[in-house]
Amino acid sequence: MIQAIVTSILFAMSAVSAGRTTRLLGAGTANLSRLVLATACLALWAHTWGQGLRGVGLPWLFASGVIGFGVGDLALYGAYYRIGPRLAVLLCLCVAAPMGAIMEWLWLGTRLTGPQILWSSAILVGVFAALAPDRRTPVPARARFIGIGLGVIAASGQGGGAVLTRKAFDLARHAGQHIDGGTAAYQRILGGLLLTAIVLLIHHWRKPPAATQEAAIVEHPWRRAWPWVIANALFGPAIGVACFQWALAVAPTGIVLSIVATTPLVVIPFTMLLDHERPTLRSLIGGAIAVLGAVALAYK
Fold first, then answer.
1. How far is the C-alpha of 126 from the C-alpha of 132, rounded, in Å?
2. CA of 283: how far to CAs of 126, 220, 269, in Å?
3. Cβ-contact 6, 174 below 8 angstroms
4. How many CA atoms lie within 13 A of 259 on its CB side?
5. What does the pLDDT read at residue 219?
6. Inter-residue contact 39 to 186 (CB < 8 Å)
């Protein structure tokens, strides 16, 4: 499970970088720019040392990217604006684990053992305890309803994309083919990049120019944003997703997603360092429960 643990660390670093780029460039531009840069990096790997666009799993990985990178991330960025990053990430990562496990059970017949279900549940309980929203900062009912719906859609995209990735690896294995994590991430990100670009083009075409200038209030936003864009692309859709694909190649979806669900907890030390935030006692207790669950799950 070391692959999934490394993934959670990389995703946490990507999340911090994404917060900075979103504030400077706007959600749409930040999301598309990281996908473009990550695609370039992954293409270099896949067409030089990997399998490029070959393999029986290509259609499934491309579809996984459309659902995970495309639908999932677009919904997640929409949830950020309505219910805030804590609840949005909580919904996406925690709900994705049981959703992915159920989808894989119904489709691929992969069953989890009793201890695996127990420790996966412990991770989700710990994450919920650490990141449950504060009642002292209420969100308007309509925005909360829409935000929760988008968060559930993001979780469905994350879980469904992971199951499709598992299907791709199964087909490749039965065909006697090998897909490394970098190549799988490249084939997958192409679907997400295509859908994201189409959605943003439609959005900018339908909106007046004044409504699309999210970063206009920041002087020279790209001058300040480009280091965070690079970090976001490398730690998230490039190296992070490559490790994620590697984890899915060797472990069931429910287990991988449960460990990756600890990502919001890994964010805490980074936000303490960069944003000077201090975790609450509830966050520390929940984090301890989730980490212990992840360690126990790694040995089951």
1. 10
2. 9, 36, 12
3. no
4. 27
5. 61
6. yes
Contacts of residue 207, defined as CB under 8 A and 6 or more positions apart, other chains included, come to: none
Every domain of the chain and the residues it spans: 2-298
11-43 tens-digit pLDDT: 888 888 887 887 788 778 888 898 999 999 999
Which pLDDT band holds residue 215 (cuts at 50, 70, 90)?
Answer: very low
- pTM (2 d.p.): 0.79
Q: What is the pLDDT of residue 28?
A: 80
The phi, psi pair for 256, rounded to 5°, reads -60, -45
Helix (H) or strand (E) holding 271: helix 263-274
**In 3-state terms, what secondary structure has residue 214?**
coil
**b (16+ CB within 10 A) / e for 44-59:** ebbeeebbeeebebbe
pLDDT, residue 121, reads 84
Spatial CA neighbour of 80 closest among 36, 34, 11, 31: 31
CA 245 – CA 3 distance, rounded (Å): 9
Signed CA dihedral, 271, 145, 191, 211: sign only: negative
pLDDT in tens, 106-120: 887 777 778 878 888
For the record, the structure tokens of 89 come out as 């990430």
Query: Any idea what DSSP says for residue 30?
Result: H
In contact, 61 and 241? CB cutoff 8 Å: no
Query: What tokens does 83 get?
Result: 């219910």
Contacts (Cβ under 8 Å, ≥6 apart) of 19: 85
State the amino acid at position 299 in one-letter form: Y
